[in-house]
Design a protein that fits this description.
- The strands form three sheets. Strands 3, 4, 5, 6, 7, 14 and 15 form a seven-stranded mixed β-sheet that branches. A six-stranded parallel β-sheet has the order 10-9-8-11-12-13, with helices on both faces.
- It is globular and about 60 Å long.
- By secondary structure, the chain is an alpha/beta fold.
- It has twelve helices and 15 strands.
- It has helices spanning 12-15, 42-49, 107-111, 115-127, 144-156, 167-176, 189-196, 212-220, 242-248, 258-263, 265-281, 297-306, and strands at 2-6, 16-20, 30-39, 66-70, 75-78, 90-94, 99-100, 135-139, 159-164, 180-183, 202-207, 221-229, 251-254, 288-293, 312-316.
Length: 322
């Protein structure tokens, strides 16, 4: 079969290599899956660079999220077990973590429903307890996980402020449903958020960016607000000033969604059931901005790493439905 593999760590566009390899053999408690679509996530770039929390042995195939078909013909979504990632014709996954693909979504959309949307639900509902009528600020609102947070926020009944970089991403954020869009390249984010909230600030901030975005968050978070830290796409990991959190009465909440697969898998299943229901009602629909041919996988991961994409890029194996 064909698979994209990383033989040495580095930039995705340089180190991902298309190889002819044997199909993976499932281990105990695992299943073989035929990949229908593989969503590109920022962690795929971190895996290539050797900077992710998990460092699979070389060579490995990146691709942490797929829509696939089981050997008995079921259409499912799954997080592949590394080193057999999703940018391949076949992958393997833990049987207990395989979930039914929502009928309301096509293969590419279903592949993009899992990690980003679960991150948004756990971050906004479980960690931050976002309530109807509150104000939610989403950094990188036109990106993969940011676009999911926007949709979950709107489904919850929150007023959503989206921060983006550039007019194209601003248009995407508006189309997603953001009530207010702030272009960080041309506007003062802090001033714009304070104006939009009458000086009160945002009740919940969803931050997959870190760096300067986190600093801005601390300046616009409301009294008893919650900042949910979900990643550091900027490459800069901030060092919170805890005295500032104390005097302003806000909470800093970390979210590593993958831990729930280990600590509370039942919660992951409940979340998937909620997302399937949302998809059936049209409350959420992954923004698939590009369906990438298999030959373009390395370039797609590099573009996501470079932060020049909107929504989700999904890689389709040769012969897969577009």
């Amino acid at each position: 079969m064909q698979a994209w593999r990383v033989h040495e760590n580095g930039e995705p566009g340089e180190v991902m290599q298309r190889d002819e390899v044997d199909r993976p053999t499932p281990g105990p408690g695992q299943v073989l899956l035929r990949v229908l679509a593989a969503d590109v996530n920022f962690p795929d770039a971190l895996l290539c660079r050797g900077l992710y929390q998990i460092r699979p042995p070389l060579p490995f195939t990146p691709g942490v999220e797929v829509c696939a078909e089981t050997e008995d013909g079921r259409r499912v979504i799954a997080t592949p077990v590394l080193p057999y990632g999703g940018f391949a014709e076949y992958t393997v996954a833990d049987a207990a973590a395989v979930l039914p693909a929502p009928e309301a979504l096509d293969d590419a959309e279903a592949a993009a429903l899992h990690i980003g949307y679960q991150t948004a639900v756990f971050g906004l509902h479980r960690r931050a307890a976002l309530q109807e009528g509150e104000t939610l600020l989403v950094h990188a609102a036109a990106g993969g996980v940011g676009s999911a947070a926007v949709q979950i926020g709107k489904a919850t009944g929150a007023t959503v402020i989206g921060v983006v970089g550039g007019p194209e991403k601003a248009a995407v954020a508006r189309a997603l449903g953001c009530d207010v869009v702030v272009d960080r390249r041309t506007e003062d984010v802090v001033a714009a958020v304070k104006e939009a909230t009458g000086g009160r600030g945002a009740d919940v901030v969803f931050d997959p960016v870190g760096g300067e975005a986190y600093t801005q968050s601390t300046k616009v978070v409301a009294f008893e607000g919650r900042i949910v830290v979900v990643g550091f796409a900027s490459g800069s990991i901030p060092s919170p000033a805890l005295n500032h959190a104390l005097v302003k009465n806000y909470s800093i909440l970390g979210l590593h969604w993958g831990l729930y697969n280990i600590k509370d898998p039942a919660a992951v299943l409940r979340c998937h059931e909620t997302l399937t229901e949302y998809a059936a009602k049209g409350l959420v629909k992954p923004l698939v901005s590009e369906r990438v041919p298999f030959a373009g996988a390395a370039d797609a991961v590099q573009r996501v790493a470079d932060g020049v994409t909107t929504g989700r890029l999904v890689v389709l194996p040769d012969g897969a439905a577009r």
